[in-house]
From TrEMBL:
<feature type="active site" description="Charge relay system">
    <location>
        <position position="395"/>
    </location>
</feature>
<dbReference type="InterPro" id="IPR017317">
    <property type="entry name" value="Pept_S8_subtilisin_bacteroid-2"/>
</dbReference>
<dbReference type="InterPro" id="IPR050131">
    <property type="entry name" value="Peptidase_S8_subtilisin-like"/>
</dbReference>
<dbReference type="Pfam" id="PF00082">
    <property type="entry name" value="Peptidase_S8"/>
</dbReference>
<feature type="active site" description="Charge relay system">
    <location>
        <position position="217"/>
    </location>
</feature>
<keyword id="KW-0720">Serine protease</keyword>
<feature type="signal peptide">
    <location>
        <begin position="1"/>
        <end position="21"/>
    </location>
</feature>
<dbReference type="InterPro" id="IPR036852">
    <property type="entry name" value="Peptidase_S8/S53_dom_sf"/>
</dbReference>
<keyword id="KW-0645">Protease</keyword>
<keyword id="KW-0378">Hydrolase</keyword>
<dbReference type="GO" id="GO:0006508">
    <property type="term" value="P:proteolysis"/>
</dbReference>
<dbReference type="InterPro" id="IPR000209">
    <property type="entry name" value="Peptidase_S8/S53_dom"/>
</dbReference>
<dbReference type="InterPro" id="IPR015500">
    <property type="entry name" value="Peptidase_S8_subtilisin-rel"/>
</dbReference>
<keyword id="KW-0732">Signal</keyword>
<dbReference type="GO" id="GO:0004252">
    <property type="term" value="F:serine-type endopeptidase activity"/>
</dbReference>
<feature type="active site" description="Charge relay system">
    <location>
        <position position="181"/>
    </location>
</feature>
<comment type="similarity">
    <text>Belongs to the peptidase S8 family.</text>
</comment>
């Protein structure tokens, strides 16, 4: 299951260096002034967007604009000539992340005429734990079947009447979903994924890593969507096609992870992905000076939130977790959950009572957040050994809903991404009185489908 890299040659540069124990290295985000010297043009988008991506834009009446143009190669080369190693780019934000061992070169970079801002976003940790070379030996795939077709996932699907949508033939076929997460530990060996339509994988943290030896969080998230073993575990979009993308560096908590995430999201866009799930969010970092404040939750301050809002403008539906800070000091949703025109998902238990850990809204500019709720307490997921396990968190509420959103869009292909988001909100059981805990409530996806059919052009 190798990554498919053809369509994103223009994104270049994702060559993160292995950290040397002897040399301390740093990464800086470089904001660029413009794209004046780009070799790409708006008249030839096929040079940097796949046919599927352009078809998605055309279908929704969305033009290609300057944010779609790749970062200027001449600027990237100039940064390299100053002694910095480019490791990541974001065309939407017009930024380059560079890695240096000698921080004195940054002063010279800051003086370049096309550079508008420089910010340190990563300091190499003192050590990085070794990955488990024997991980596959953990997998037993010992499961017990039960009477429910969805296995232990039946309740988390039934609360949205997702089983009715599936029963009508809409199980995600023809839809592409990108999962952006921390790693997909043992997903290549676990039986509930054997029928998964995998388009490819990509690691934006370390392209040389084994994405299946990294953190297990993404694997559990993926199982809420793509599991397809009847009477054991079936996810909410078992027939969709998947990109597995890694942007979370579990070894540290630093701002550069937002840059990785933005690049992953742009990759998904360029590949022509329809729906994105991300169960990641950041408000607190190893360097406390980088922490976010409540006033930053305006949908654009965070690099991730700005990128998520742009993704909505480019015709993708982004579904993300609200965060698990409800019990803590922060309490609020975590970026990119404050982004505009996306679906931010909070957690309820199986009795539909809100989970006390689920982060709350609203945004600084007064928008309802979270948007909707899904089961995030004792959610049925795959265990790292291939058995059925259970997990708590908005991390699992998000993909449960995300898969149903993809199936809903499959059923109603005439809708735009924004119309899909609005339809899901309007199908919430608290639509008439949304608040900062439940948002618009628990959406009835079958009701959303029936309503959309009545309004079909």
């Amino acid at each position: 299951m190798n990554s498919q890299r053809g369509i994103v040659g223009c994104l270049l540069l994702v060559c993160a260096l292995q950290v040397s124990a002897q040399v301390k290295t740093y990464k800086y985000r470089i904001n660029l002034r413009d794209k004046a010297e780009t070799t790409y043009t708006l008249d030839n988008p096929s040079a940097y967007l796949s046919g599927r991506a352009m078809e998605r834009r055309t279908k929704q009446g969305l033009p290609v604009d300057s944010t779609d143009l790749p970062v200027c190669r001449t600027y990237i080369h100039a940064l390299a000539e100053k002694g910095a190693q480019p490791v990541s780019t974001s065309k939407w934000n017009n930024t380059v992340v560079v890695q240096v061992a000698d921080t004195s070169v940054i002063a010279g970079i800051a003086e370049l005429p096309f550079v508008t801002a420089v910010r340190k976003v990563w300091t190499a940790p003192d050590s990085i734990p070794a990955r488990n070379a024997d991980r596959k030996k953990e997998v037993t795939n010992k499961v017990t079947k039960n009477d429910h077709y969805y296995g232990d996932a039946w309740r988390q699907i039934a609360v949205h009447h997702g089983d009715s949508l599936h029963g009508a033939g809409f199980r995600g076929a023809g839809m592409q979903i990108a999962v952006i997460d921390a790693g997909y530990y043992n997903a290549d060996e676990i039986s509930v994924f054997k029928k998964m339509n995998l388009l490819g994988t990509r690691d934006f943290v370390n392209p040389r890593s084994d994405i299946y030896a990294e953190n297990y969080h993404g694997m559990k998230v993926l199982s809420c969507l793509a599991a397809n073993r009847p009477h054991v575990l079936v996810g909410t979009a078992p027939e969709a096609a998947y990109w597995l993308l890694r942007s979370e560096d579990d070894d540290t908590e630093q701002l550069v992870e937002e840059d990785y995430w933005a690049e992953a999201l742009e990759f998904a866009d360029s590949a022509g992905v329809d729906v994105v799930n991300t169960s990641l969010g950041y408000y607190e970092f190893d360097d406390k000076a980088m922490n976010y404040r409540y006033r930053d939750l305006d949908g654009r301050y965070s690099l991730m939130s700005h990128s998520a809002s742009l993704a909505a403008d480019k015709g993708m539906v982004v579904v993300c977790s609200a965060g698990n800070s409800g019990r803590g000091v922060w309490k609020k949703i975590t970026p990119p959950g404050d982004a505009k025109n996306i679906l931010t998902v909070g957690a309820v238990n199986r009795e539909l009572v809100n989970a006390d850990f689920s982060s709350v809204g609203n945004t600084t500019d007064g928008r309802i957040k979270p948007d909707v709720m899904a089961v995030g307490v004792s959610s049925a997921v795959a265990g790292t050994d291939g058995t059925v396990s259970y997990a708590n968190g908005t991390s699992f509420a998000s993909p449960i809903l995300c898969g149903l959103v993809a199936c809903f869009w499959q059923a109603c292909p005439w809708l735009t991404a924004r119309q899909v988001v609005e339809a899901v909100q309007n199908a919430g059981d608290r639509k008439e009185y949304p608040d900062n805990i439940f948002g618009y409530g628990i959406p009835d996806i079958w009701k959303a489908y029936q309503t959309a059919l009545k309004k079909k052009p």
